[in-house]
Amino acid sequence: MQFGQSEDILHDYFKDALIPALNRQGIENVGAFEETGETLPKKIYLLIPYKNMQEYQDVTDDLEDDTQFQSGSETYQNTPPDKIPFERYESRFIRSSWGFANLVKPGDDLDQFELRIYESYNEDALRRKIKMFNEDEFEIFDNVGLEMVFFGKNISGGQMPSLTYMLAFEDKEKHQEAWSKFGNNPDWQRISILKEYENTVSDITRVFLKSLSYSQI
């Protein structure tokens, strides 16, 4: 986001034009978040779940013919350059895996989120890490109280090759307790030392988010 610039134009566009238009086309549970803390430049995240790439293409094309969307987005589209609230945006496509195939909407009491990006040094390392999740880690997460929202392999964007997933939690204390249980879990300790899963993660990015008032997650 642009430092010192009003964000209202972008929030109104998401809330009153884009998200309702996506809902009309059957896209549910669109998430809208901002980073917690005082990190600059400020970032806003939009999470849009599509069933497949064809649905993404169809929805994108249909937005051009949605007169309600076009009318609702006029203020945003006509904003002059010196008033636009962001510098640039980045899009990332993330493909879910069989172990966690669909986005899961968390309970209303879970409005804090952790976004985690695991980078791998090559594609085979990423394949092995995704296998580790599919066959063991999802079950461990569930057992220790780490609430998954989505998981998938990044197929475009930065930090490639990589996977991304999101966790929802009530507060940081309970979140930390769950991660502590994960580290001490005997199944995790067993699989973490298997030779097959050596050198699968070369870097981890953690981003803490909070849902915006109009978020559907």
UniProtKB/TrEMBL annotation:
Database matches in InterPro entries: Dimeric_a/b-barrel (IPR011008), NIPSNAP (IPR012577)
Pfam families linked to this entry: NIPSNAP
Gene3D superfamilies: 3.30.70.100
Domain NIPSNAP: residue ranges: 113-216
Superkingdom of source: Bacteria
Name of the molecule in the record: NIPSNAP protein
